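Quick illustration, no need to memorize.
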Amino acid sequence: MRNGNDGTDSLFASQVARPLADRMRPETLDEIVGQEELLGPDAPLRRMIDSGRLSSFILWGPPGCGKTTLARILAGSKNLHFEALSAVFSGVADLRRVFEEARKRRDSGIGTLLFVDEIHRFNRSQQDGFLPYVENGTVVLVGATTENPSFEINGALLSRCKVFTLKPLNEAALEKLLARAEDELKCKLPLTDEAKSTLLDLADGDGRYFINLVESVHDLARDGETVDREMLLKIVQQRAPAYDKDREGHYNLISALHKSLRGSDVDAAMYYAARMLQGGEDPLYILRRLTRFSMEDVGLADPQALVTAIAAWDAYERLGSPEGDIAIFQLVAFLATAPKSNSCEKAIISASKAARQYGSLMPPMHILNAPTKMMKEMGYGDGYCYDHDTPEGFSGQNYFPDKMPRLKFYRPVERGFEREILRRLEYWERLRREKNKPNGQ
């Protein structure tokens, strides 16, 4: 049992059985596994530590990768008082108390490392409250977050802190933890090779969870028996897939779904759609993004894409889940296998640029209506050719402002229905050139 923030044992600690994860907590930087890119020789965080100039920083990484442990070790190695807060359970009063105590310690020549777990849970005004204390050195702030700091941390605070990214523990790192756990338990886990591989998979890169799994197997396995995969799953049960539908996992999976659709990989797209639904994502959010994809990435290569997306959306709202899920996956399959074109999106960008450049020019007089006698006398509508009166149904007149060159924004691809559009545009362009030839040419 720990006594508050300094990590020291209380009088009664020896009477309480400590969990394996607590007994195995690293005490030096070299004991931290799986973060060699940050803590290995000449790695960025190691260089900052070795330089003796410890500045505030953010640790971004998934659960169980060592963020809290790293902060504790740093405080001890630099003789800083370690103060820990959780943004989930702390408020403004807690922050004021911590800053005041840190100020008093600084006046006595003692520095403070303030570790804030789940720092993204503080709102923007609370995050702003850290700024003066970070700037004047009252605290060295080490924030920990499982979410993308660029989304969740104030720009002002982020500009004063380095960001270090911690990775989920890979198989080699988990193997090291398993060996240490067996040393601590003074026995080897009685696992078959398949069960051991499953145990590593179940951890999903989370070191703390992995050690808890190891302890469960050690405590619950019967003496003398070998644990196979089926028995292992009965002991620990399967872990739910990691997915936070309003945070980093949400953005990663919708990005993966979108790019799989764009790459016409129907199986990958269905996999990511299934992961999102199983993780609790709102089906209407997925349908909204699929509808957007139908316009952005399929477009006029298949004009039925948008129609199908709206129909799937409508079907799901009428049926709900699970029957309506079929409409979602039908739409995913349709969009993934449809011809792709972003010609309209690119045309919007080009046309918008031209609108900013030539936005003040009047349209040519011959295409302006003349509802009053004065406007007719001024030449509004003079020379307008009614396209339906021509044999081809196409006059070839100029519709751009007189002082603006003719520009080309929409460039259809030679895929899907846009092949037909391309032929039409080429035909009209040929007619336009012929109709606008000077007389006698």
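The longest helix spans residues 418-435.
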